[in-house]
Amino acid sequence: MADGDGDPGVFTATALPGDPRLLPTLTNAFLGTRAFRDILHAAGVYSGAAGDTHRADVPSPLGLRMAAPGARSPAESFTLDTWTGTFSHTIQCPGYTATHQLYAHHSLVHLMAFSITIRRLDGSTHPVTVQLQSLFVPQSQDLDLTPGPDFQGAHYIYGQTLVPEVEGGPRPTVHMLWTPIPQSLALGGEERERRWEFLAAVAGSEEEAKRSYSAGLALVAAGSLHRSHVRAWAALRRGCSVELDGPPALRQALHGCLYYLLSAVPPRDSPGAPFHGISPGGLSNGTRGEDYWGHVFWDQDTWMFPNILLLYPEAARAMLQYRLRTLEGARRNAQEQGYEGAKFPWESAATGREVCPEEIYGAQEIHVSGDVLVAFEQYYCTTQDQKLFREDGGWELVEAVARYWCSRMEWSEEEQLYHIRGVMPPDEYHGQVDNSAFTNAVARRSLNFAADLARDLLLSVPEEWEDRARKIKVPFDEERKYHPEYDGYSPGEPVKQADVVLLGFPLMHPMSAEVRRNDLEMYEPVTDPAGPAMTWSMFAVGWLELKELQRARSQLQKCFSNITEPFKVWVENSDGSGAVNFLTGMGGFLQVVLFGFTGFRITRSGLLFDPAFPDDITELNISGVSYLGNKLEVTITREETRVEVTETSRDPPASPLEAVLELGQRFPLREGQSVSFPTAPGWIQRSPS
């Protein structure tokens, strides 16, 4: 087991899990691997035609194990330090320690590195040797690799993926330079301590690979390679800090989720390098047959995105730009199915074309286009970033999805409402249903946002958008006062995962507290206990909304059966099946903390709050909440809420803010001044002054 009493952000064990999938992942925005694995992946590098498209395996020189020859039962420890973004393996022998450190450099995103350090503990003078056991072979089943000339002491290979995603489409190229790895390293008789550094640079061009490798060598020469990574990573963690006073297991889970999710996003100072989206198991997974082959689903937009947006809107923008770059593929998907506008694929890789191996999901699980639009709407309300929508393609995407929804609806003369027929809702136990409550509600929200945005941009609003938003059917049972999942749903029918409960959050579909409660009561007992990990977090958010704190706690507790020891790697299903390092589940868990405990809700008029947390939590502190160009530090206890503007953007200038309580008190929020008020419902909005 991991340490329960120590630092909640450091996970240490004396043995590794038996299942190698549960080893910690080391990723940045462009590269990802798992500790001791002999392959890595590069963002956006897929091989295989649609249906077989998967992350291309790049051979990894980093997947080695260190051993101490001749040492009898040395003491070993394995540590993931989420504060430094570093994994280490330490062997302690009589007279010396050997430490292997491994990391994906956070700011030099084309660089991964490891070091071996041997340090004497006594006055002996005999040489000390450690072995490096490597499985590395510079070959790949997915890349046509060719050796090139050595560069600054590094070996070099390069090659293209074997099969393009779409016929005639591009085949990405990979260039890799790496420090040659000897079979053993020795500390000389006169040496007390020595460190050896090893680099691997991977990029889409020879020039970028060489530039990154040279930058790494220069930092090695200055003795600051690891320090430069830690500094960049620590700056990100400081700006996205979430701390709570509560049970150790909850605090550890929180730090694990923040580590794995923030590892996947671009660094703060990254130039405009394209971002390639986040798959359910992240960049370290996604080889053929694993983690849905590294495809991007609604998991990114619905489950991971809101957390990133609240803490780090620049990275949220990069996630949206992935959808913007794949808009043409989405247009083709709609066209091929006989509809207008753009239909985002259920499973997306590099082009936006549908790459799901099973046709039923791509054809029926169409809510994903609405999920993408909800992310764009949340971003717009939080940042008021006009440039994304006016100049960078945001409006074209919103308009295309609105047109898709209009063409996908049919008018029912009998009900005098619009229907969407033949879909699969988020609950994948039911296909080919009519009027999925979630699908239709997200279509309605898409059309309302498109109309509101058009008005803000001083564009004409097509009449049919507002007409269809008003008249689309969202199934509702007047007698039982709840939302049936789809036309013909019978109470008690098993459900795979969170579906109707998503109407309350994140969709904020209008309903009374009674209906919200009835939806939770109806679906909680029939949702498959073996279903995917993000489900219970949404029930927890619902119960927090209704101030049913114990019921919320018991739902949150269910998440822990998906968190594995000792490195807090999540599995999709509690039996260990499905995607591993399941960022989707972590995203749901973080939303309980960031949106459930705080009551934060992103709306057009303000950032609502209504805090509530279970009895075993006494304080929550979030530094780096981003809203309209301001960075806020928010501290909440049961009695008091404290808010301070810690930073304001200058270009474009941040909007001045105020906090308003439902009872009417107003509190101007000024940079550098802490404001306290009783913990109660209210909102943060633009100051009218």
Kindly report the average pLDDT value. Answer: 96
Quaternary class: single chain
- Under CATH, the topology of the domain at 10-239 can be stated as Beta-galactosidase, Chain A, domain 5
CATH architecture of the domain at 10-239: Distorted Sandwich
Number of helices: 16
- Which spans of ≥5 residues are poorly predicted at pLDDT below 50? none
How much strand content do the residues show? 15-25%
Q: What distance lies between the first and last C-alpha atoms, to the nearest angstrom?
A: 55 Å
CATH superfamily of the domain at 10-239: Glycoside hydrolase, family 65, N-terminal domain
Estimated helix fraction: 25-40%
Q: Which CATH first-tier class of the domain at 10-239 would you pick? A: Mainly Beta
User: How does the major sheet shape up?
Assistant: 9 strands, antiparallel
Instruction: Give the radius of gyration.
Output: 26 Å
| Strand order within the widest beta sheet | 1-9-10-11-12-18-16-15-14
* Number of separate strands: 30
EC number: 3.2.1.107
GO molecular function: protein-glucosylgalactosylhydroxylysine glucosidase activity
GO biological process, one term: carbohydrate metabolic process
Organism: Struthidea cinerea
Quick gist of this model?
The protein has 689 residues and is of the alpha+beta class. It is 29% helix and 24% strand.
Task: List descriptors.
6hp_glycosidase-like_sf; 6-hairpin_glycosidase_sf; Beta-galactosidase, Chain A, domain 5; about 700 residues; 30 strands; globular; hydrolase; about 30% helix; 16 helices; Glycosyltransferase; alpha+beta; 9-stranded antiparallel beta sheet; about 25% strand; Glyco_hydro_65_M; EC 3.2.1.107; 5-stranded antiparallel beta sheet; single chain
